[in-house]
């Protein structure tokens, strides 16, 4: 836009320019006229007398001027504005005066004017006072008239030149001024300078005539600006001075200080004024305001910190004050949970309060909050979308675009993070960082002080509670009363919701005392509840380690066993109750919130658990003392009786034992002897044998410290003798000599020797025969078939012998397993008879079987029972001479008040001498007659029979008379 004179540019631009000059006059107090440029001066002539008018036209035109002669009624200001000078006569002067006053009132440009008056000097002063520039008297001389015209026109030209210079100066000032200049009429801008247009991001031609002043005003400020414009246009205020927010073409906001003045333009009110960009000033003012707010906040937070020792109240109040004072969208305070290795949101305020879950936590090192905590550094992200560390844990709820995180420290240790978030870009600056850092430091100091105060308070409470517990423990020996008192004190110092004491009974822990479970509806269920030790992680671990256990979050502990109805337990701390190094019970505390317990709670709980252990030990000792006191009198009363009973028992033992017992001194004098020893010494032995026995007793007693042993062989009696010293406080040293009758054992040993001799013979005989026939077969191949049969017979005999020996070894080793099944005893006997019929026939013996009257069923191992019957029948045939008889019968017989199944093998053989009957079932025993008759055998057959029958729950009996035969009966339980 240019500020050229009225001869160029758009008419609205020219009008705006003139109005702007008028406004400048009003503002600056200096008259500024618009410049005019004409190649030839124009004179307007208004004369009532036609003759005078013609004469004046000729004179003026002769002087080289252009003349216009409007009619006296023509008063349009635009007609007069085309003239450089107006000449009127006295008759029309009054009419021109009114036109002159009208045009000047409307701020239109009016040319200089001259009045030709008659007579000379009449009313000259009046016309000059009315506004005319000169007065000339009629009749004027042409030369005088022209001279006066030239003087007036020269004065006008010089004024116009001065006006042009002033306008150029004004144009230069307006176009190059840093101050914005505007002019508008009603709702349309008709002029702005370049500075103002550029502030708002426009070119002047985009604004002039096209925009309203309110188009560049922030929507929130439009009503106020519109009211101020209305007041000035309505004449309620001539000028105004105020600040508003403007909106640039790109949408950014600037602050503008407006100065405006009301002017009249073309008969209408208009406003001319200036604008100054005060954005930096407003930003500085805002910074100062924020600094003052920050100082006030710091003072308030410091005062709040000093006024409370409640950590929860402190962090809630601090977060609320920060959010309210600075208007942040969201402020949160996180504290580090070492157990979970995460930051837990403990307080929040602002527009995001309801968008976070109540238990929100951030893993250490994750997101900007976790990063600030892990690295101990302030983190500012004014566009979180460009920061790879940023994590929105709830993107569907929280529209964060800027975030500021400041670590909270105690010394060099990071204990939490102060977090501020905003949905706007570039929401934070360095001042926010500094104030948040200062607040974080103050909060860290406050938390440290509160922790110290709490620690001191907790230690004092712990000491008082332990003292009161010790008083309870020391004041009563009633365990139930002590446990109640301990639970009362634990509630004071451990911030739990439910408490219990359980004692170990076998592999279970039974709860014996409980508190607080009524609040969760478990008061009845908890009492006498028995819990397997292996089923709960905490109990099993305490048994293994003997140390307390803390579970900060049961939901996060994979080893925690979740039981239906007990989901309310979200945290747990337990301490083992130990007595003499053994865990005998547990002191348990349950919490309803995660993170409710830590190592400090475990330490406190263990102190009480130790007192429970002391109380249990005291109660146990007290109970033992009471029991001892009650028993002591009984023991005193019973002691004599016990001693008498012991003496009587000793006498009874000594009298009932089959061994001889002798108490003698080291010189061999006998002080005491039991009946068996007395019988040997005084009655049953011969004089010589009794003397020999006394001599050995004397010798052994003298060497009792050596614990000597000796076997004394007397007539028909073998005695094994051992001596040992008797420990006691008596002055005389005594020794006990035990005398054991080993006659039978020695006989058995001799029997074993005989067996070895017999078995050696039995083995040598078939082996020698086998060797003989093998030699014969080698030397006489032609008679090979004749020698094979006796060879096979000797091999069978040898196999039978070896099998008997192996069978007994299996029985002794317990490797014989019975496979029981219900079986007909008659069929077993019948089968055995058939197996031995050929053997009986070869020897000329009659073999007979008698069937039972009714079926006899037994539950036996058929194979083992065949072995029993085979042994009995083989012996019967072997020891019965030719012409004899062997009879097998099956039936039922009563014995011991019940019915038994019996199978009997009777023969008419050589019989058994009466003196040998007690030994026939002994291993390796063979009678004298079979050995003399050289009847083959090992002495194991009947012993095997006895063992196998007894394994089936039965027994074997024998009836025999020498020279008449023998009858063997097997007794077996009937099958149920």
Instruction: Indicate the mean pLDDT.
Output: 82
Which structural category do the helix and sheet elements fall into? alpha+beta
Predict the CATH topology of the largest domain: Beta-Lactamase
In terms of per-residue confidence, which ranges show pLDDT below 50 for 5 or more consecutive residues? Answer: 1-19, 23-38
Q: Can you identify the CATH superfamily of the largest domain?
A: GAF domain
The radius of gyration is: 69 Å
Silhouette: rod-shaped
Helicity level: 40-55%
CATH class of the largest domain: Alpha Beta
Overall strand count: 34
Overall CATH architecture of the largest domain: 2-Layer Sandwich
**So how many helices?**
25
Question: How are the SSEs placed, and which strands pair?
Answer:
Blueprint: H1 11-28, E1 42-46, H2 50-62, E2 66-68, H3 77-81, E3 85-89, H4 90-105, E4 113-117, H5 124-130, E5 134-137, H6 142-176, E6 180-185, E7 188-192, H7 194-199, H8 204-207, H9 222-233, E8 239-247, E9 253-265, E10 268-277, H10 279-307, H11 311-326, E11 330-337, E12 342-350, E13 361-363, H12 367-375, E14 379-381, E15 402-410, E16 413-422, H13 430-475, H14 479-493, E17 498-505, E18 508-515, H15 523-526, E19 530-532, H16 537-545, E20 549-551, E21 571-579, E22 582-591, H17 599-656, E23 660-665, E24 670-673, H18 675-684, H19 687-702, E25 709-714, E26 717-725, E27 734-741, H20 743-779, H21 784-813, E28 821-824, H22 825-843, E29 846-850, E30 857-860, H23 862-878, E31 885-895, E32 898-907, H24 928-932, H25 941-951, E33 955-961, E34 965-973
Parallel strand pairs: 1-2, 1-3, 3-4, 4-5, 29-31
Antiparallel strand pairs: 6-7, 6-10, 8-9, 9-10, 11-12, 11-16, 12-13, 14-15, 15-16, 17-18, 17-22, 18-19, 20-21, 21-22, 23-24, 23-27, 25-26, 26-27, 28-30, 31-32, 32-34, 33-34
Helix pairs in contact: 10-11, 10-13, 11-13, 13-14, 13-17, 14-17, 20-21, 21-25, 22-23, 23-25
